[in-house]
Amino acid sequence: MKKVIISMMVVFAFALVAYAAANGPATIDLVKEFNVAAPTKKAVQFPHAVHQSKLQCVDCHMSDKGGALKNQKTGAAFEPAKLGIKGMKNAAHDDFCWACHVEKKVPQGKSCNKCHK
Ligand code: HEC
Ligand code: HEC
Ligand code: HEC
């Protein structure tokens, strides 16, 4: 009986790890991920898991497995790490986060301290 329980626990632990890997991290530091060279605001800790519970993967990614992001205005691939994000008028705001928050009417969706905290 003990052996059965232990092997069930092992299977469960592996399933959890596999689930986490397929879905990516629950929270993502976007200064690192978007390659922001000289941040002036607090780095955004993006609540990935919260978004996954409300949206489809392909709302943000080009595929349902993750990987390349999607420009919210054009639907083309979005590569923030190559865009030199700087200042208020930047692609992370205009072409990604804010574009969807406005469309979906997220409460305080453009309030600075909702994201930079
Ligand atoms: C609201 C937007 C959004 C949704 C919805 C979303 N993601 Fe992500 N995801 C991101 C962002 C932003 C990153 C970090 C940037 C990056 O790594 O490209 C990321 C990173 C990832 C990563 C790690 C890095 C990579 O690019 O592979 C995986 C894996 C991933 N997401 C999978 C998923 C899966 C699977 C779903 C659906 C269950 C999903 N995501 C839903 C925005 C989203
Ligand atoms: C495709 C749509 C979409 C995109 C893109 C998107 N969001 Fe959101 N976001 C939402 C929705 C919808 C909610 C509201 C979730 C809810 O009902 O609480 C939300 C809520 C949030 C919240 C509040 C979460 C909480 O715990 O209440 C934060 C913070 C946030 N988004 C940050 C970001 C950042 C940073 C980006 C860009 C990297 C981003 N979002 C991109 C749709 C999006
Ligand atoms: C929906 C999420 C979200 C909101 C709301 C938001 N930002 Fe951002 N912002 C980002 C993301 C994502 C980045 C790129 C990653 C990072 O810098 O953490 C960014 C980057 C920046 C940058 C360039 C990098 C830096 O730190 O200098 C500035 C400046 C900035 N934001 C200012 C603001 C101001 C001012 C507000 C309020 C008017 C605001 N942001 C509201 C998500 C948001």
Would you give an account of this structure?
- This protein has 117 residues and is α+β, with helices and mostly antiparallel strands.
- The protein has six helices and five strands.
- The chain has a three-stranded antiparallel sheet. The chain has a two-stranded antiparallel ribbon with strand order 1-2.
- The site of one heme C has 18 residues, from helix 1, helix 3, helix 4 and strand 4.
Helical segment count: 6
Largest beta-sheet details: 3 strands, antiparallel
Q: In sequence order, what are the helices and strands, one letter per element? A: HEHEHHEEEHH
**How many E-type strands?**
5
Rg from alpha-carbon coordinates: 18 Å
Weakly predicted, low-confidence segments: none
Strand content: 5-15%
On the 0 to 100 scale, the average pLDDT is 90
Task: State the helical fraction.
Answer: 40-55%
Helix-strand category: alpha+beta
Shape: elongated
Ligand inventory: heme C
- First-last Cα distance: 49 Å
Which strand order do you get reading across the main beta sheet? 3-4-5
**What is the total number of structural domains?**
1
